[in-house]
Amino acid sequence: MSETLDISLDLSSKKNRRFIHAYIRRLLKQYTSENNKRKRLQEENAALRKYIDDTADLVEFAKNVRAIPRPHDTIP
């Protein structure tokens, strides 16, 4: 994100002020966009982790249920 500006920082020039303000707005918009993207990916990652944990819990529960002897299994 390192860019160099080839413009004088003479703020008395209206053209320079507009350019600098537009440049700063663009950088802020880019930063906000990247920050929002990072936040969205973290939320999706958290949702996937929860899904994986829930699935693992269900698999463990199913194993425990299958391990319980049933009455029809014990009848000779």
Please provide a written account of the structure.
The protein is mainly α and 76 residues long. It has helices at 14-67, 71-74. The longest helix has 54 residues, at 14-67. The termini are far apart.
The shape, in one word, is: rod-shaped
Largest sheet: none
Question: How far is the first residue's CA from the last residue's CA?
Answer: 76 Å
- Mean pLDDT equals 85
Radius of gyration: 30 Å
Provide a count of the helices: 2
Number of strands: 0
Short description:
The chain is mostly helical and 76 residues long. The chain is 76% helix and 0% strand.
Using brief descriptors, characterize the structure shown.
76 residues, mainly alpha, 76% helix, rod-shaped
SSE blueprint and pairings:
Elements: H1 14-67, H2 71-74
